[in-house]
Amino acid sequence: MTEPILLKRPIARLDLAACYASIGERKPDMAHRFRLDAETTLAALARNPGLGEPYPVSDPRLRGLRCFRIKKFKNHVVFYLPIADGIDVIRVLHAARDLRLALEEDL
Question: Which is nearest to 71 in space by CA: 33, 105, 102?
Answer without folding.
Answer: 33
